[in-house]
Amino acid sequence: MRTPAELTTAFRSLGLKVTPQRQLLFRLLHDNTTHPTAEALFEVASAQMPGISLRTVYQTLTDLAGMGELQSIAFGGGAIRFDPNVGQHHHQVCVSCDEITDVYVDGVDQLNVSLRNEPDAHSFATASTDIVFRGRCVRCADTV
Amino acid sequence: MRTPAELTTAFRSLGLKVTPQRQLLFRLLHDNTTHPTAEALFEVASAQMPGISLRTVYQTLTDLAGMGELQSIAFGGGAIRFDPNVGQHHHQVCVSCDEITDVYVDGVDQLNVSLRNEPDAHSFATASTDIVFRGRCVRCADTV
DNA sequence: ACCGTATTTGCATCTCATGCGAACTGCCAA
DNA sequence: TTGGCAGTTCGCATGAGATGCAAATACGGT
After folding, report:
1. pLDDT score recorded for residue B144
2. Do B124 and A136 touch (CB under 8 A)?
3. Which nucleotide, over all strands, has the C1' atom closest to the CA of B39?
4. I want to staple A69 with a disulfide (CB 3.0 to 4.6 A). Which of A1, A32, A122, B65 is the partner?
């Protein structure tokens, strides 16, 4: 997503207001690589702004996602996670500690997709491809 | 997953009982390609066995998934979906009608994965790879 | 500084999923 | 075939994640 300063301009030009709550969330999300849930972000935000509402965090996350500034991803772990990296990338998920890491993959568009009883699946118009690698991160590989 | 007959034997040999409810669910799930949610399966089951409990459906789905007879997959759509196809495959999801189709992909193991500031991501021990293609199915491509 | 409108907040509500215990039943053993 | 233990079913309560709603508040253009 864009910088807090750029988001401030973007929000204003859309008739949206830039409140202290939103500014805080802009800062907490910018360059954030932890793929936080709404609750997790709320915890961090609360530490810096006691009293901020979980509802506001949800609201702002929804707004940002709607503007294309955030990607929301649903892994199996219950809550939805938010990713300020909206570029073309994929994810590695550690099955042990749930750490999520952004990864970049070559050759995705060249994958050969086929249905079970047909030569190919060209009839489906793919708009995006999401790849999730599940396994063990370096740290957890040792502690097996 | 295996056939209802095979599952019956498998359950018995594990000390688990084969009830009419379970037999019905075995039948409804075998060769089922609709990737149903627990609720969806409950609806179909209720039609054939009025009074069956949603709780029982959840219970049996959990059991089957634990035995490796079902794969549970979390797309963004809220409820978890179950897939009796436990072979190596991936999914196409129609963003318009939510239809999910199994697809087979070549070359997954040859994908070149890299981190942002490192040559590769070999430090991560990938155990499985899940690919989701999002787009429009044949039917929904027309009705744009 | 004013005022209209967007936002924040807290609470209620909703969905999906699981915990729990009483009643029931499959199925092994005698 | 029957008895009885252990696994199941089922309904209700509970919990997590997320959203609807309305009153009070505050941003920001004028």
Report:
1. 65
2. yes
3. C16
4. A1
